[in-house]
Design a protein that fits this description.
The complex is a heterodimer.
Chain A lengths: L1 E12 L8 H13 L3 E2 L3 E12 L3 E2 L6 E12 L6 E10 L2 E6 L2 E6 L7 E4 L5 E4 L5 E2 L4 E11 L4 E6 L6 E4 L5
Chain B lengths: L2 H11 L21 H10 L3 E3 H8 L3 H13 L3 E4 L15 E4 L6 H27 L6 E3 L6 E3 L3 H4 L17 E2 H8 L5 H22 L1 H11 L9 H17 L6 H11 L3 H7 L9 H10 L14 H4 L3 H10 L5 H7 L7 H46 L3 H41 L5 H14 L1
Antiparallel strand pairs in B: 1-3, 2-3, 4-5, 4-6
Classes of the chains: A mainly beta, B mainly alpha.
Organism (chain B): Lithocarpus litseifolius
Protein name (chain B): HTH TFE/IIEalpha-type domain-containing protein
Family (chain B): Belongs to the TFIIE alpha subunit family.
């Protein structure tokens, strides 16, 4: 699920960036530092949408670096148990398959793939129904439901299932 | 019959709950399984009850009881209300009150218990069903070499680049899914067989569950449409209990002994003061100051009220408060001085006076009623006598007149008798009350009243 929230961060800035575009430098550095990171608490920071305010800088003893407390608005993405996501399959193996929904990695074990889909090894490993009409392989797009999340300080990993109504392949890369 | 639900649930789910810490040695004697059931059963027969009283009744150690109750509180079966009785500050936590949120006249309780049990059943079934369909379950993997277990959540770390299997982090052995391993142990011939066996086991469990919990579910469906019995918060309940006693006094009806005794037991605590000062639960140690402040700034309390402080508890009328206040005089007199100083500086004298007034009022009310009854009886008598005289004398109209007249006479006569008796009875009552003020519980006094009415 996506959220638009306000976060705060202390930015350390080298003295060489000081000058008339100090603010731009801070924002640029903030974007570089923060976008794409993941915190267990808020999820993945997708994009910074605005700066609320930049506080007074504090010169660090000894280094000359200055730290600015920056409040910024950003879009975060955090997966939840029970959430339905659309994801792209990245790897298929005997144990199941891995998929990505944006920044988050999802594993679907073979127990959570419908029973009528069989694993086919080979050059392009895939799960296929007996009549061959549905095929899950690398780059397939699937709709899945998250049934478990593991949230670490800097990492979120999910397991999902496609063994439910309306879940499974939503496009066929071969046909496209 | 409504206890049945609780009782069934207690036996189904809390049969083997021990409330013991893990550090205690488990001897046969200290085995307290089944205590939970006993406690729940006892609670179904009560409404709000003090923890100590319950402990005494059950002959349990209060600590043990408290542990059990806390467990039930977590299970949302029991509502507890903490209150401080600052009688000299000696009994600080002793007034922690356990209310059964079950039994008949409990509002939140019964409601909650119904939901708790339903939820529990739902979860049990869902878990088994999910497991049966392999739905929503986190797959587990085991390393056959070192026995290390992983879940599907570790999958990202376990994939290897060489092949398509998961590999153990410590010994690099090939991981197998848990059910597969079961199959391997049982000498089964592959994945499918094991899975089938597992399914059968689960199906059996699900069936057993359906069969064994059938009575409970039947009870649930039976209770479903019944209105939830009113119970209210502790304070509302106390007020009602004492009001019930009052009412019972008034119409000289039979008092439910358990209720009246409980109610009065509770009337003895500081209900109206709590109501006034809006201090129900006090976890911090600053209760003395806080209460005073609050009692002064009662109107300005904009705080969000916790659910147990709902309006009922505070909508006590002045009269009700006054009434109950009298009952406080024995246990709560010292507390009364502390809390209600702004209202009643000389509590004891006022109380006595109030009691007397109240008694006189109640007495006259009862007297009036009695009189009416007597009147009616007299009327009947006269009608009878009229018919008699009708037989004797020929003129009916005159008879009627006589009847009316004599009825009046009778009335007066009745009155005379009553008035003669009244002061005597009243005196005896009041004397009795005043004398007994320091020792006697209210119930006995009220009972005496009833007897007096009967005699009068």
């Amino acid at each position: 699920m996506f959220f638009h929230i306000v976060l705060e961060r202390n930015m350390q800035l080298h003295p060489r960036h000081f000058g008339r575009n100090l603010r731009d430098n801070i924002v640029a550095k903030l974007m570089k530092d923060v976008e794409g990171t993941c915190s267990g608490r808020h999820g993945f920071v997708v994009a910074i949408t605005g700066i609320e305010n930049i506080g007074k800088g504090l010169i660090r003893d000894g280094t000359g670096f200055v730290s600015f407390p920056v409040k910024y608005q950003c879009v975060v993405f955090r997966p939840f148990k029970g959430e339905i996501l659309e994801a792209v399959v990245t790897m298929v193996n005997k144990m199941g398959f891995f998929a990505e929904a944006g920044p988050v990695q999802i594993f679907v074990s073979n127990h959570l793939i419908p029973d009528d889909m069989e694993f086919q090894s080979g050059d392009m490993p895939n799960y296929t129904t007996s009549d061959g009409s549905v095929k899950i392989q690398k780059d397939s797009e699937v709709r899945l439901k998250i049934i478990g999340t593991r949230v670490d300080a800097t990492e979120i990993f999910c397991i999902g299932t496609i063994k439910d109504d309306f879940l499974g392949v939503i496009n066929d890369p071969a046909a496209a | 019959m409504k206890h049945r639900l609780v009782k069934l649930a207690a036996r189904a789910f809390y049969d083997d709950i021990t409330t013991k810490g893990d550090n205690q040695p488990k001897t046969g004697r200290s085995d307290n399984r089944g205590i939970a059931v006993v406690v729940l059963d006892a609670l179904t027969r009560r409404q709000w009850v003090r923890e100590e009283d319950l402990a005494k009744d059950l002959k349990l150690h209060s600590k043990q009881l408290r542990r059990t109750l806390r467990f039930f509180e977590e299970e949302k079966l029991v509502t507890r209300d903490h209150r401080r009785e600052t009688a000299k500050g000696a009994k600080i936590y002793s007034a922690a009150v356990a209310a059964t949120a079950d039994g008949h006249p409990l509002k939140e309780g019964e409601e909650k218990i119904y939901d708790v049990i339903r939820y529990r059943l739902h979860r049990m079934k869902k878990k088994l069903k999910d497991e049966l369909d392999n739905k929503n379950t986190v797959q587990e993997y085991i390393c056959p070499n070192c026995g290390k277990r992983y879940t599907a959540l570790d999958a990202l770390r376990l994939i290897s680049l060489e092949d398509e299997f998961f590999h153990c982090e410590s010994c690099n052995g090939e991981l197998v899914a848990e059910s597969d391993k079961l199959a391997a142990q049982e000498g089964g011939d592959g994945d499918d067989n094991a899975r089938r066996r597992r399914r059968e086991k689960l199906k059996d469990m699900l069936q057993n569950l359906e069969v064994q919990l059938k009575p409970l579910m039947d009870q649930l469906t039976r209770v479903k449409d019944l209105p939830v019995p009113e119970f209210g918060t502790l304070h509302a309940w106390e007020a009602r209990a004492s009001a019930a006693v009052r009412a019972a006094n008034g119409d000289s009806g039979a008092i439910d002994p358990s209720k009246s005794s409980q109610g009065l037991g509770y009337g003895g605590t500081s209900l109206p003061f709590v109501g006034d000062t809006k201090v129900e639960v006090d976890f911090s140690g600053t209760e003395g100051k806080g209460e005073n402040i609050k009692s002064e700034t009662e109107s300005s309390s904009l705080k969000v009220l916790p659910p147990w402080m709902i309006k009922e508890g505070m909508n006590l009328t002045k009269e009700q408060r006054g009434e109950v206040k009298q009952e406080l005089r024995m246990d709560g007199s010292s507390a009364a001085v502390e809390f209600s100083d702004d209202k009643k500086p000389t509590v004891e004298n006022d109380d006595k006076k109030n009691i007397q007034d109240e008694y006189i009022k109640a007495y006259y009310a009862a007297l009036l009623k009695k009189q009416q009854e007597l009147d009616e009886a007299a009327k009947k008598e006269h009608e009878l006598s009229n018919t008699h005289s009708l037989n004797g004398v020929s003129d009916t109209t005159s008879n009627r007149q006589v009847g009316i007249k004599s009825k009046r006479d009778e009335d007066e006569g009745d009155d005379d008798v009553e008035w003669e008796e009244a002061p005597a009875a009243g005196n005896s009552n009041e004397n009795y009350k005043v004398n007994d003020l320091n020792v006697q519980a209210d119930a006995s006094g009220d009972d005496e009243d009833d007897i007096d009415w009967e005699e009068g």
